[in-house]
């Protein structure tokens, strides 16, 4: 019995695609980008002095979902922030209830003086932008 070459090539390609698509980082499979409704931040701050940005929105739609972390990156005078949540249900039933993001905050200190943009990245390539003057 011989296997035709095109069937063998198909099987090899299929196995390779399956192996490449496997994700060994199981901790990130339940993480999701949170949609932020609004932020509260000052219009102006002093250079190199810490200030808070407070976030509002829904972090989850059941008791297994919760806020996890903020990812912050800087690009010259743009500060990009992502609010991440996680679902720790692992297939188990979850309680009903909305989990709010309210009160989660990021503390920043910006230097040098100038106009900065706080850009909150959200699902669906949506951004929330707040301009801050640094004196």
Explained architecture:
With 135 residues, the chain is mostly beta strands. The protein has one domain (27-134). It is built from 1 helix and 10 strands, in the order αββββββββββ. Strands 1, 3, 5, 6, 9 and 10 form a 6-stranded mixed beta sheet that branches. Strands 2, 4, 7 and 8 form a 4-stranded antiparallel beta sheet that branches. Strand 9 and strand 10 (126-134) form a beta hairpin. The longest helix has 17 residues, at 5-21.
Total beta strand runs: 10
Structural class: mainly beta
Give the % helix: 10-25%
List low-pLDDT spans: 10-28
Instruction: Give the SSE order as H and E letters.
Output: HEEEEEEEEEE
Question: Which word captures the global form?
Answer: elongated
Short description:
With 135 residues, the chain is mainly beta. The chain has one helix and ten strands; from the N terminus they run H-E-E-E-E-E-E-E-E-E-E.
Secondary structure layout plus pairing:
Blueprint: H1 5-21, E1 31-33, E2 36-40, E3 44-45, E4 51-62, E5 65-75, E6 78-87, E7 96-100, E8 104-108, E9 114-122, E10 126-134
Parallel strand pairs: 3-10, 6-9
Antiparallel strand pairs: 1-6, 2-4, 4-7, 4-8, 5-6, 9-10
């Amino acid at each position: 019995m011989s296997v035709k070459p095109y069937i063998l090539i198909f099987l090899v390609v299929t196995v390779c695609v399956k192996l490449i698509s496997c994700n060994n980082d199981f901790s990130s499979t339940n993480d999701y980008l949170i949609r932020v409704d609004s932020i509260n931040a000052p219009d102006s701050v002093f250079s190199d002095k810490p200030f808070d940005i407070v976030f509002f929105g829904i972090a989850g739609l059941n008791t297994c979902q919760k806020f996890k972390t903020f990812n912050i990156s800087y690009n010259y005078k743009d500060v990009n922030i992502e609010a991440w949540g996680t679902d720790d249900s692992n297939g188990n039933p979850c309680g009903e209830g909305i989990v709010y993001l309210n009160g989660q905050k990021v503390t920043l200190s910006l230097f040098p003086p100038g106009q900065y943009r706080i850009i909150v990245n959200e699902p669906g390539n949506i951004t929330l932008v707040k301009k801050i003057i640094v004196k």
